[in-house]
């Protein structure tokens, strides 16, 4: 228990015993036991009355300790690799939560969303949770992460707090908007340095544009010709800064037809602002034939598992565009012979296409082991070659083979197989010698006898 560890390490053993007595807590607490939210609130109230802290201050301190505790139990490397800066760290917290939820399905974790105009030293973060009043705990965790991983300090201001209702939620959801500023960070570039970079990039881009124009002609310019030269320089220089000095080249159109796209991404689903399915991958169509109709609504075919703190609506999806989405197929929409097999869970990313006002869900089956695949009567061939999930399943399969090799029966069969292969190789070797050498010479060599060369 994090709360228990914090009180015992930061204060005295007697303080924890007093908290136990106030809330009627057992002397020993099972760390794996499911704890009711009301009991958690009771612990917190008992702790702040015993220790004399304001509630928000106490939760922030516990949050800072929580990160230390997570590092102790092995999550340190995972947390350290969430991002290169604080913005990436916050944006990837939900991705980490999806994996934790796969191991602990009943856990109720918060969700985080950053505004699109957020940058690495200044961001607006939306916090969502069905557990009211625990956002100071998350603030403490973020502050500790900034110190530990980015050598920075966070200035956090609560802009607003509200309670919202989710359509299929049994309880209201708390929505807290946070303004976060990162200070004293070695990763922050001053305005003067940023302006110098832009000036240098403009000069470099000018030279490059002139070179392209001389060698390739006006049509080879990387931006649209109707823009002024000044706009071109500024736009390309800005891209150069964003991409670390690299200027990407985008084609005027993609050499990708609809058939190839649906085959390459067999589990994708594209839908418009009314949630109507525009197109989908071939495997999704096989599993759910009804999705091919023009009136198919994506929410009729899939249940939203994550983010669990939002309604499955187009406007909300656009807001959570940087969050991993987990969908589960609905039983009444599956193919007729699916039977009682478990539903397929898809995990992936929602991509908003502004030019068509369409969201494309690029995803793949969310499976943790070969058993998940076998229970759904699926095969490795059902997972695209480019999907890393296929490689992970292959690794597990090879691990099974290595484990099975310790079985005496399997080892005996393997030895017999190798012995047969050795006998076949010997017969082939004998035939080759007979074909290439005189019979008498071949017989002597086969019997390991020396042969004296003649004329």
UniProtKB/TrEMBL annotation:
SUPFAM superfamilies the record matches = Ligand-binding domain in the NO signalling and Golgi transport
Q: Which GO terms describe its cellular component?
A: guanylate cyclase complex, soluble
Which PANTHER family has this protein been placed in?
A: GUANYLATE CYCLASE SOLUBLE SUBUNIT BETA-2, SOLUBLE GUANYLATE CYCLASE GCY-32-RELATED
Instruction: Please state every residue range assigned to the domain named Haem NO binding associated.
Output: 256-445
Q: Pfam families recorded for this chain?
A: HNOB (PF07700), HNOBA (PF07701)
GO MF annotation terms: guanylate cyclase activity; heme binding; nucleotide binding
Q: Which residue intervals define the domain Heme NO-binding in the entry?
A: 3-157
What GO terms describe the biological role, i.e. biological process, of this protein?
A: cGMP-mediated signaling; response to oxygen levels
Q: Name the InterPro entries for this protein.
A: H-NOX_domain_sf, Heme_NO-bd, HNOB_dom_associated, HNOB_dom_associated_sf, NO_sig/Golgi_transp_ligand-bd
What is the protein name for this chain?
guanylate cyclase
List the EC numbers from the record. 4.6.1.2
**From which organism does this entry originate?**
Capitella teleta (Polychaete worm)
Give the residue spans that cross the bilayer: none
Upper lineage = Eukaryota, Metazoa, Spiralia, Lophotrochozoa, Annelida
Q: Which UniProt keywords apply?
A: cGMP biosynthesis, Nucleotide-binding
């Amino acid at each position: 228990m994090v709360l228990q560890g914090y009180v015992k390490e930061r204060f005295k053993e007697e303080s924890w015993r007093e908290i136990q007595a106030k809330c009627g807590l057992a002397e020993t607490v099972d760390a794996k036991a499911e704890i009711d939210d009301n009991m958690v609130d009771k612990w917190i109230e008992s702790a702040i009355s015993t220790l004399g802290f304001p509630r928000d201050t106490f939760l922030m301190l516990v949050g800072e300790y929580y990160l230390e505790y997570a590092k102790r139990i092995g999550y340190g490397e995972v947390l350290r690799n969430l991002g290169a800066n604080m913005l990436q760290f916050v944006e990837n917290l939900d991705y980490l939560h999806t994996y934790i939820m796969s191991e602990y399905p009943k856990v109720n974790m918060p969700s985080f969303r950053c505004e699109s105009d957020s940058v690495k030293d200044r961001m607006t973060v939306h916090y969502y949770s069905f557990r009211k009043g625990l956002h100071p705990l998350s603030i403490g965790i973020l502050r500790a992460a900034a110190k530990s991983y980015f050598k920075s300090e966070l200035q956090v201001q609560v802009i607003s707090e509200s309670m919202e209702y989710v359509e299929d939620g049994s309880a209201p959801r708390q929505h807290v908007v946070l303004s976060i500023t990162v200070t004293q960070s070695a990763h922050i570039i001053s305005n003067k340095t940023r302006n110098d970079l832009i000036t240098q990039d403009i000069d470099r881009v000018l030279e490059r544009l002139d070179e392209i124009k001389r060698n390739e002609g006006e049509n080879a310019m990387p931006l649209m010709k109707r823009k002024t030269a000044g706009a071109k320089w500024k736009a390309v220089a800005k891209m150069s800064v964003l991409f670390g000095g690299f200027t990407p080249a985008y084609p005027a159109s993609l050499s990708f037809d609809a058939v190839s796209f649906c085959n390459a991404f067999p589990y994708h689903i594209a839908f418009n602002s009314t949630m109507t399915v525009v197109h989908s991958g071939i495997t999704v169509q096989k599993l759910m034939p009804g999705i091919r109709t023009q009136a198919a609504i994506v929410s009729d075919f899939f249940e939203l598992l994550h983010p669990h703190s939002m309604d499955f609506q187009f406007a909300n999806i656009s807001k959570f565009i940087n969050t991993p989405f987990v969908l589960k197929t609905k039983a009444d929409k599956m193919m007729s012979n699916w039977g009682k097999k478990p539903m397929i869970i898809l995990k992936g990313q929602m991509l908003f296409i502004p030019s068509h006002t369409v969201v494309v869900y690029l995803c793949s089956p969310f499976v943790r082991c070969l058993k998940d695949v076998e229970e759904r009567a699926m095969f490795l061939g059902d997972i695209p070659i480019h999907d890393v999930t296929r490689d992970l399943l292959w690794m597990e399969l090879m691990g099974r083979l290595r484990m099975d090799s310790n079985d005496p029966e399997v080892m005996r069969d393997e030895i017999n197989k190798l012995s047969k292969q050795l006998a076949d190789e010997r017969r082939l070797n004998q035939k080759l010698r007979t074909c290439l050498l005189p019979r008498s010479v071949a017989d002597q060599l086969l019997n390991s006898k020396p042969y004296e060369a003649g004329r």
